[in-house]
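Section 3.1: Structural characterization of target chains.
Under the original work plan, the team committed to producing a structural model for every single-chain target entering the pipeline before any wet-lab resources were allocated. The record below documents one such target. The sequence was received from the expression subgroup and is listed exactly as submitted; it comprises 218 residues.
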Amino acid sequence: MELIETIIDVIIHIDQYLIGIIEEYGVWVYLILFVIIFVETGLVIMPFLPGDSLLFTSGMLCATGSMNVVYLMVLLFIAAVLGDNINYRIGNYLGLKVFREDSRIFNEKHLIRTRAFFDKYGGKTLIIARFVPFIRTYAPFVAGASSMNKKRFMVYNLAGGALWIISLLLLGYFFGNLPIVKEHYSLVLILISILSMVPLFIKFITNFFFKTKTGNRN
């Protein structure tokens, strides 16, 4: 329970933690952020790291001059792409046999949920998953374990990484320092998590109505 409470506290107060890291380590913050994004996307055992909130907050601090948004954008894009690539290779090497019902990390429930994404959205899962916590970490692993074509994987990896990093950094950069955002920062982070599910909701509604119309015709 203490670990869960700590993780929740870090996610909710990521701005305070990040400001402290910048004050303590200076330019080394770039490397620290690189490692966090790389680990969250590259290691299937670390799906709980605060990726979305971290990017938004980083963009917000870039707007104050604490970091350079262009440098950070390029650096974290590389981290996200490398992370997914490593995760894909690990999944390709280990295969699906590592997933078990009684495993905390390689739980079959995570596998079933992620494979359901692939069944519905195909390779686009790797783009959509970037904006969905936990699925973001498991998607490249399952892609590798399922022997997805490497070139096809890299196309979606690059596109998804770019959209994820650029959109959330710029969102924080342009809107993070507005008074209303600062006053309701915790709520904003929750809203970002909810908005990350919008593409899935739209896709669900589209599929639902398409199937309904098809069924009516039959």
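The chain has twelve helices and no strands.
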